[in-house]
Design brief:
The protein is an alpha/beta fold and 246 residues long. It contains six helices and eight strands. It has an eight-stranded mixed beta sheet, with helices on both faces. Strand 4, helix 4 and strand 5 form a beta-alpha-beta unit. The model has no long low-confidence stretch (mean pLDDT 89).
Length: 246
Amino acid sequence: MSLDYQRIVLITGTGQQKGIGFGLAKALLAQEHTVILTARNESIAHKLASQLAPDKNPIFGKSVDTTNQTSVDRLADWVREHFGRLDILINAVGSGFDYGISPLHTDFALTQIALETNLFGTWRMIKAFYPLLRQSPSARIVNVSSGAGSFSDARFGLSANPVLMTSYGLSKLALNGLTVQLARELKPDGILVNAVNPGFMTTISGAEAAGTHTVSASIEGVMWAATLPDDGPTGGFFEDCQLINW
């Protein structure tokens, strides 16, 4: 089945206007999909949604704390009540950027935040929304990952820079592994699950000195994975729409 229909898209991590989540919401809305953008603070979510209010297609701002099961379940209930299905889930929320911190100097409080948000938060969202994704004719899950969660990334990978963003990198490494396992489990349902490295973005403090991608460039690979045809890949780790090693 083709994807030539109006999809219901939910994006986490859209709480900042300059972030990748907000950029994705704007781009997917322009493609005439129904978009649910989320932030921990509902007033912020409503405000950002109103900035993108389209002439034709609806956009909704909803609150969700992906580290809180009750909050996730509440959002899933709302989507079930209003739409009865979900076509695209983009897990773009990220936290725990411990730039330059080595393992022996890691603050475990920050490590816990990174794991709870980047790994368990994504895992929690997928489990909660799986019944709604099964109702879609062509469901897609995109986990926004990072080169810091790979061994092969020449600049930020674990082999190249073993002390760079320790907690964040390890949480994304685990996310890549979760993506592989979920892709295998959900393949019989026709649900494609992929991880995407959007590149080092200008929204991260200090990124300018290291060379960065703009948000518009970063979202291209995520958009590609979110709108794959039914015979598209699953269980991969991609950058710029190309399969990369991790």
